[in-house]
Design a protein that fits this description.
The complex is a heterodimer of chains A (about 140) and B (about 35). With about 140 residues, chain A is of the alpha+beta class. Chain A is about 60% helix and about 15% strand. Chain A has a single domain (about 1-140), classed as Serine Threonine Protein Phosphatase 5, Tetratricopeptide repeat (Alpha Horseshoe). Chain A has a two-stranded antiparallel sheet with strand order 2-3. In chain A, helix 3 (about 55-75) runs antiparallel to helix 4, helix 3 (about 55-75) runs parallel beside helix 5 (about 95-115) and helix 5 (about 95-115) runs antiparallel to helix 6. The chains are: A alpha+beta (about 140), B alpha+beta (about 35).
Chain lengths: ~140, ~35
């Protein structure tokens, strides 16, 4: 996990008691009211994803990967976003992040290509897995 | 986040980390924690 994080991110930790002033400044800036709260920020410091509360390692990593994918999507790097979203489905298929990632992988492909078949393929994919999720319902409109 | 802390080197200087992120075009993980440092 440590290698994955250090390869992809600048990692900063702010302690609620040991860094009181810095904690106050940053928790107010990002409205963080609980620990642990983990934020994925883009290079301009804009929040792209938030994780509140403890998660086991695989769930945590899948959420970090979701944050990286969201960040790529927001900067309109749709090819990179789709790659990252699909990696979540492949690496963490049982995670809560996976159906969300499957949905946004399809959207990213459509945004990159303008080809609506990317959306229809996503609806089809939801027919095979994650049928009982909200993301499957959202994708159903494309079928 | 305890699971992320085991063998990772953390920065405790947010502004410097954000500068590095801008230079390297990378994202930032900011962890607000109460866990022992």
């Amino acid at each position: 996990m440590a290698r994955y994080l250090s390869e992809h991110l600048e990692t900063v930790r702010v302690h609620v008691r040991d860094q009181k002033d810095e904690y106050k400044r940053l928790s107010e800036r990002y409205n963080a009211q609980w620990t642990p709260t983990v934020l994925i920020l883009d290079a301009d410091g804009e929040e792209r994803h938030r994780i509140e509360g403890f998660l086991p390692a695989d769930d945590f990593l899948s959420q970090i990967a979701l944050g990286l994918a969201k960040s790529a999507f927001q900067r309109k790097d749709y090819g990179e976003a789709e790659r990252r979203y699909r990696e979540i489905v492949d690496r963490f298929p049982s995670s809560e992040a996976a159906p969300e990632a499957l949905y946004w992988a399809g959207v990213s492909n459509y945004k990159a290509t303008g080809d609506p078949s990317a959306l229809r393929a996503t609806t089809t994919a939801f027919g095979q897995r994650y049928q009982d999720t909200a993301w499957a319902k959202k994708a159903s409109v494309w079928g | 986040m305890p699971t992320a802390s085991s063998s990772l080197t953390w920065s405790h200087d947010f502004d410097s980390a954000l500068t590095r992120a801008r230079d390297a075009k990378r994202d930032v993980l900011l962890d607000f924690t109460a866990a022992p440092m």
